Amino acid sequence: KKIDSVMHLEISGQYRKKIEKLYSKKNQRHIDLKLQDKVSLKNNIFQICMNNKYIVSIEMIQDDECPIKGVINKIDDNKVIVSKLTEYGEDDGEAILKKENIDTISFLGVDEEDIQLLKRK
User: Fold this and answer.
1) N or C: which terminal CB in the chain sees fewer CB atoms within 10 Å?
2) Which CATH number applies to 36-120?
3) Whether the Cβ atoms of residue 118 and residue 86 lie closer than 8 Å to each other
4) How large is the average pLDDT for residues 99-107?
5) Three-state SS string across the chain, please?
């Protein structure tokens, strides 16, 4: 990937050491993300999350206080459709999001894992 597509990168530091220690203690590992060439990082992430049915948290540019949580159902050139889930893992309708307004997407984090566990019941 081109370096100009990377928005933030940290190397070494205490956070990395903390994460390595937690991964070791929790017996976790990083997932292998297979990125497609000639596709933006953002679109690669959308596709990976949709294909694996990962629960995502999406923050919009104008509304970072209330992230949309759920599973990506559909992606096209301009929008992402998410089947929303509540913090209790219950279905909560759909959200149609303009890609250009998406600021942040998180997946496989603590919040998303909690929702996944509650969804399974």
Assistant:
1) C
2) 2.30.30.100
3) no
4) 93
5) CCHHHCCCCCCCHHHHHHHHHHHHHCCCCCCCCCCCCCCCHHHHHHHHHHHHCCEEEEEECCEEEEEEEEEEEEECCCEEEEEEECCCCCEEEEEEEEHHHEEEEEECCHHHHHHHHHHHC
Residue found by looking up tokens 């292998």 in the block:
32
Distance between CA atoms of residues 15 and 35, nearest Å: 25
Closest alpha carbon to 104 in 65, 66, 59, 71:
59
Of the candidates 15, 20, 86, which has an alpha carbon nearest to the alpha carbon of residue 57? 86
| pTM for the structure as a whole | 0.75
Check: CB of residue 72 under 8 Å from CB of residue 85: no
CA 100 to CA 91: how far, in whole Å?
25
**Domain ranges for the chain:** 36-120
